[in-house]
Amino acid sequence: MREIEVSTIRDAVARLAVDSCCNLGADVLTFFEEAVEREESETGKGVFRQLLENASIARNEQMPLCQDTGLAVVFMEVGQEVHLVGGDLEAAVDEGVRRGYTGGYLRKSVVADPFGERKNSGDNTPAVLHTRIVPGTCVKIVLAPKGGGAENMSALAMLKPAQGRAGVLDFVVDTVAKAGPNACPPMVVGVGVGGTFEKVAYLAKKALLRDVGSVNPVPRLAELEDELEARCNDLGIGPQGLGAASPSWTSSWRSSRPTSRRCRWR
């Protein structure tokens, strides 16, 4: 049995909160760089160049990539041979978010009593925490600040079995079409299928943790991802909703992490 102080997790969450808002992942940077060459529209090329410049400024100045630093969504895998000591895990995660968002001067988006006075919590807590117990002696933390501009474009449907594959494709593409420019494209589309309504939402959110450009190891799902990507691109929304002459989105069954950070203990 391995003991880990919850204060260690608190400190890691605080670091990840700032890091994820200021440092764009290498996979996304690579996608932007390649998109500059691939995009046929000069307007589209210009958008991607601005995104790359923004990412560079954010990293060098340690300033948020976007003013919407979102709700802190924390995915945690805890090895079953780990004994967490020194306090309450959920309280430690919230304290990490509190320290990260306050000390990092990140925007706080959480409000209490949404049907009442809607008073801001002032520290972006509580976090949205998903935990899994897994084999081993490690703890893995992924923090993804989920901006409201993308989150409020989310959708869920209960399809009839007879709608099958075509029904899933149509629903996803229709959801992207309705989102249009409101979610600040280019964006990553996470899709979850199966289970109960809360399970499928979790799967879709977890899908965003895949690297941009990764290929699903299941051939039939990889084919489905390719079809979804092509159909979403064919909508012509383009980067920042300004239209595009060539693909500038990335969408997949289990997609990618736009700005997330991971921490492991071994």
Biggest sheet descriptor: 4 strands, mixed
Structural class: alpha/beta
Task: Determine Rg (CA atoms, Å).
Answer: 19 Å
Order of strands in the sheet with the most strands?
6-2-7-10
User: What portion of the residues fall into strands of 2 or more residues?
Assistant: 15-25%
Number of separate strands: 10
The helix/strand series, from N terminus to C terminus, equals: EHHHEEHEEEEHHEHHEE
Average per-residue pLDDT, rounded, comes to 89
How far is it from the N-terminal to the C-terminal residue, by CA? 13 Å
Shape: globular
Question: What's the short version?
Answer:
This protein is α/β, with parallel strands linked by helices and 266 residues long. It has 8 helices and 10 strands.
Notes on the protein architecture:
- There is one protein chain.
- This protein has 266 residues and is an alpha/beta fold.
- It has helices at residues 6-22, 26-38, 42-61, 89-103, 148-151, 164-179, 197-207, 219-233; strands spanning 2-5, 71-79, 82-85, 111-112, 119-120, 128-134, 139-146, 188-190, 250-252, 261-265.
- Strand 4 (111-112) and strand 5 (119-120) form a beta hairpin.
- Helix 1 (6-22) runs parallel beside helix 4 (89-103), helix 2 packs antiparallel against helix 3 and helix 6 packs parallel to helix 8 (219-233).
- Mean pLDDT is 89; it is low at 245-266.
